[in-house]
Amino acid sequence: MNVPNAVSILRIIMTVPVYILTVMGPDYKIAALILFAIAALSDLFDGWYARKFNQITNLGKFLDQISDKILINAVFIALLGAGIIPGWFVAIIVSRDTFVSGIRMFLASKNVVVAADNFGKLKTFLQIVSILYAYLFVNEPVLISLLIFTAVVSVVSGINYFTKNKHYIL
User: What are the transmembrane regions (predicted)?
Assistant: First the structure.
């Protein structure tokens, strides 16, 4: 197993303590924030490392995407449970990610592996910013605006993903 793949697996493992710290309440919010930030930064590291040392693999493309979805969706669910973000937002994000993951599995069955594009990377960036902001500024009007923008970009990126790959699907 190469370094980027190991880092992606570590990101999945880090999801558990981030989730637990988030649902434990406000006294643990900063610890959850710090651990989440480290996990999010590991996403940048594994991508950089894979490109720099020519360790890009199909497994890595899969693990990177899945580890991001697990981390981000679990934290959004924890923030929902803590009463920090609304359910409509989590439903949109989880639905979009499930839809795109379904497409990825279908494409994988046809031996097609699709890496994330810039729109997907923007979506992930906005989701990470939304989480960081939610930890720092609970129930702020700016947070709701950020969540709306993030939800719109997430849905549009899901539509874009389908559209770019529909020739494999239909």
Answer: 6-23, 30-50, 70-94, 142-162
